[in-house]
Amino acid sequence: MKYIVKKLIMMAFTILVISFVVFLAFRFIPGDPALMILGGQSSPEKIEALRQEMGLNDPVMAQYLRWLGGLLRGDFGVSYRYSMPVLSLIGEKIPITLFLTLEAFLLMVVISIPLGIYTAKYSGGLIDRVLVVINQIIMAVPPFFSGILITWLFGMTFRWFRPGGYISYKVSFASFLGYLFYPALAIALPKAAMAVKLLRSSVLTEAKLDYVRTAYSRGNATNDVLYRHVLKNAIIPVVTFLGMTLADMVAGSLIVEQVFGIPGLSKTLLTSISNRDYPVVEAIIVLIAVIVVTSNVAVDLIYRALDPRIRAEE
Amino acid sequence: MRIKHFFRLKNNPGKYNVTLLTGTIITGCVLLLLLIGVIHTPYDTEAMDTANKFAGFSLRHLMGTDNFGRDVFSRVIRGGQTTLKIAVGTVFIGLLGGTVIGAVTGYFGGLVDEILMRINDTIFAFPSVLLALVIVSLFGSGTIHVIWALGIAFIPSFARMVRSEFLRYRDSDFISVARMQGAKSVRIMFLHIFPNTLPVLLSAVMIGFNNAVLAEAGLSYLGIGVQPPEPSLGRMLSEAQSYLATAPLMSAGPGLMIILMVLGFSLLGDGISE
């Protein structure tokens, strides 16, 4: 319990630091936001008045605290470009990216764990050897290229889905998840290949240890030893890996959204970057940071639940 | 490590290290191709031949032609060179920054270690493409900015590795001896400990190349990496995607190049640690 509280405080602190760094970084870039909103032709007085109104003349710390206070109340500021609250600009897009990431993550787990166990159990066999080679190649495919291949293969050749035929979650949640299946697969495949490789080598390393021999000598069958003894230990490094990939998958989603024409956070982020619409960029980055940090803490807690040795150390 | 033993397994010298061997062959071929490309490419990368666009694979155009009738093979070689250039720059920055931070924190420990590692872990948790995205949005796109952005994003992983190596050697006997002989800290760090980290570091450099190629291609695919007219594998793929229905082969060339580069480097990384 004490550990969890400590972790949560650390997490809040980390998010605070990230938000401060992001805020500072975007204050230091050249360019006056007031000038950007009003355009080059407006009079200096008008610009000065807007600067005053936006609070740009206040000390940096005061500006930061006001911005942070806003974030906590769900007020993400106002877009320079569209003059509307950032939240209403990105609010509807958050679930899209979130669900894509989660679906990809689930797919990765569902694909990699059985395959990893299978290849380890029958290591050295023909299927294992073929899978190891295929695995190594899939690991080298960047998510956007796997996306292009999947679009071509399943979308254009087999016609199992309509590329670009995105269905909003407001229209039908089931078809929304259905359309996300292939993009999620594109993100999940390379990561799943890595997880299979890791789980396989982890199981094989564990299988050489003494306790495995003991378990066999007590008359346990192979499956008993594998599932009740080896896997318990072998799965731990894989959990760490899966947790770390969750952050990568958010990044992967941003890229793959572009491949499949999904109107998630990616498009907004990219256009805001090229438009120098900083409040939007700041908000999206802080949002992603929160997701990343939270998922890391979650993994840490799961890790603790799985491995009693860590709990015993305290 | 004599060259004869280089391709043998560390724990089983009777067997060849197949991973390392395959990695060397793939990377060697790719590098050779890119190197020849500096002097000569089959076609001018910008030469358009509108009568002959979307051509399939043939002996005249090994990887076909694109929507302007430009030779994809020549462009893939140029794009590969750009990618490699960025990867080298990125890994160099990451390695340099990571080694210095890792060495200082690992060797001295204490409060500096605590603070730097806290920052390090925070950056480490952030996906490198996203971090690069932030930096590019602050400073603008283009090759140099991509190198800096990815280089900074790569520092934490190198720092972590170097730190753990320094921690391992810090209290060992040969270091105590050097210290008793009156060697200065900087001398111990870089002349005594650093050479011992090289095998691990070399493997990390290969993984770094692997990640850099993927990250650069991703950024260029999104249109915020390398800018035209410089050919880039990522942007070629994003262009090819628009013609996927009519000319699916157009994306095969650049995709294959990325896969080969990543595959070669990752096999080298795995092979070295074996």
Q: Can you describe what's shown?
A:
The complex is a heterodimer of chains A (314) and B (274). Chain A is mainly α and 314 residues long. Chain A has helices at 2-28, 33-38, 44-54, 60-72, 86-90, 94-121, 126-139, 143-157, 173-207, 210-217, 222-260, 265-275, 278-306, 308-313. In chain A, helix 7 crosses helix 9 (173-207). The model of chain A has no long low-confidence stretch (mean pLDDT 81). Chain B has 274 residues and is mainly α.
Which SSEs are present, and which pair or pack?
The complex is a heterodimer of chains A (314) and B (274).
Chain A lengths: L1 H27 L4 H6 L5 H11 L5 H13 L13 H5 L3 H28 L4 H14 L3 H15 L15 H35 L2 H8 L4 H39 L4 H11 L2 H29 L1 H6 L1
Chain B lengths: L2 H4 L11 H22 L32 H37 L1 H16 L2 H12 L3 H28 L2 H8 L4 H37 L11 H10 L9 H22 L1
Helix pairs in contact in B: 2-3, 2-10, 3-4, 3-6, 3-8, 3-10, 4-6, 5-6, 5-8, 6-8, 7-8, 8-9, 8-10, 9-10
Form type of chain B: elongated
Estimated radius of gyration of chain A: 24 Å
Our estimate of the beta-strand percent of chain B is under 5%
> What's the tally of helices of chain B?
10
Short description:
The complex is a heterodimer of chains A (314) and B (274). In chain A, 79% of the residues lie in helices and 0% in strands.
Key traits:
A: 79% helix, B: 274 residues, mainly alpha
